[in-house]
Design a protein that fits this description.
single chain, alpha+beta, 2 domains
């Protein structure tokens, strides 16, 4: 009884496969791939992870702990990230989190996307690089520090 049932199932599956193959006589796999490539050719080559600077500075930088801070960090200069035109047209929005390392003078010497959104990463890192801080002082000595900065991209 089980052999007959499995034979029927096999025959039904073969018929379904044949019908599926016959229903697409004019559609070759190459033409499908070609159409997909043509549709996405105008998409910019955005990076999924963006890094600026030398990562070795992360080891030397202080992770901020408010208990030990005498002064700072105070943001002196901030520039808004540029919203990429492609992202505006395609309603891409959200938050990009960038980890930065700031040197003893207050300049950003390293920036890396920690949480990213395709298409918005480069703009967030470029804006992070332009940030300027008052030097962080620990026991009255300027120190390097690391900080996570969120950049929110919204179309509203």
């Amino acid at each position: 009884m089980n052999i007959k049932r499995s034979n029927y199932i096999t025959v039904i599956l073969l018929i379904i496969n044949l019908l599926w193959i016959i229903s697409f006589p004019f559609c070759s796999p190459q033409s499908v791939v070609q159409n997909e490539v043509e549709e996405i050719e105008d998409v910019p080559n955005f990076q999924s992870r963006v890094v600026y600077g030398d990562a070795s500075v992360m080891d030397e930088a202080l992770k901020l702990d408010p208990l030990y801070l005498d002064h700072g960090p105070t943001l002196i200069h901030r520039s808004s990230p540029e919203y990429p035109e492609y992202c505006i047209k395609n309603d891409i929005e959200g938050r990009v989190l960038v980890t930065i390392v700031v040197d003893e003078i207050g300049n950003v010497i390293y920036a890396e996307t920690k949480e990213s959104i395709w298409g918005l990463n480069e703009s967030a890192v470029e804006a992070a690089i332009q940030l300027k801080f008052e030097p962080l002082k620990v026991k009255n000595n300027p120190k390097k520090f690391t900080l996570d900065i969120p950049f929110v991209f919204s179309l509203e």
